[in-house]
Amino acid sequence: MTSAKRLAAEKAIEYVEAGSIIGVGTGSTVAHFIEALGRMRDRIKGAVSSSEQSSELLRSAGIEIHDLNATGPLALYVDGADECDPHKRLIKGGGGALTREKIIAEASARFVCIVDPSKQVDVLGRFPLPVEVIPMARSLVAREILAMTRAQPVWRQDANERGVVTDNGNLILDIHGMSITDPVALESALNQIPGVVAVGLFARRPADIVIVGGEPPQIL
Ligand code: 5RP
Which residues cross the membrane (predicted)? Predict the structure, then answer.
């Protein structure tokens, strides 16, 4: 049986315009999208990548990678999510690529989010909210998050208990135990803490279209 992630990713190909440069997110759902994009690589100009992981997949698929500074605004950004609410607001950053993902989403006219049905929630927050922080500010930001939200920030570590380092050389705090009733306000408040690089809430700039994988895929 074809997975819901793959079904969502393959549907997203319909939004790709010939001759364009596509913004590409990160994660297992996006990996299916890159695979499908590879099959039409001769009909696109290339991609702007949100992570080293996606860049590797794009290169293996024979897709040229462009620098966002050189491309200017993009017509389309395709990415997955960890949670999606009915207003197409998202939690992202489970794969640690939230900052570059947010930059490309902001630079794109249309953000198509591809998810499987398990990502749909009424209220964001069951998935721990990732926040990318400058290393020297880790403890400061954690204390301020705790004071502000009363929820628990946890330093993301790998299996060897070493801090996970992002592609930008920073660390991640995952905020556990929140029910985010006003995502726009929380995104803006967390962004004010010195040392925060990016917050994995995509509420001020939500997705424009959400494709939920299934047979047939659902377009929201
Ligand atoms: C990476 C992300 C991913 O889009 C998110 O974690 C979903 O991943 P997957 O498609 O593997 O479920 O935000 O930073």
Answer: none
- CATH of 4-119+204-219 among 3.40.50.1980, 3.40.50.1360, 3.10.20.310, 3.50.50.60: 3.40.50.1360
Assigned fold of 129-198 = Alpha-Beta Plaits (3.30.70)
Mean pLDDT of 94-101: 98
DSSP labels, the chain: ---HHHHHHHHHGGGPPTT-EEEE--SHHHHHHHHHHHTTGGGS-EEEESSHHHHHHHHHTTPPB--HHHH-SEEEEEE--SEE-TTS-EE--TTS-HHHHHHHHHHEEEEEEEE-GGGB-SSB-SSPEEEEE-GGGHHHHHHHHHHHH-SEEEE-B-TTSPBP--TTS-EEEEEES--BS-HHHHHHHHHTSTTEEEESEE-SS--SEEEE-SSSPEE-
What per-residue confidence (pLDDT) applies to 1? 74
Which residue from 6, 30, 116, 201 has its CB within 8 A of the most atoms of ligand 1, so it is best to mutate? 30
Mean pLDDT (whole number) for 87-103: 98
Q: Looking at ligand 1, which atom is closest to the CA of residue 97?
A: 14
* Residue 132 is a catalytic residue: no
Residues in contact with ligand 1 by the CB-under-6-Å rule are 25-29, 79-82, 92-98, 101
Closest residue by CA, ligand 1 atom 4? 80
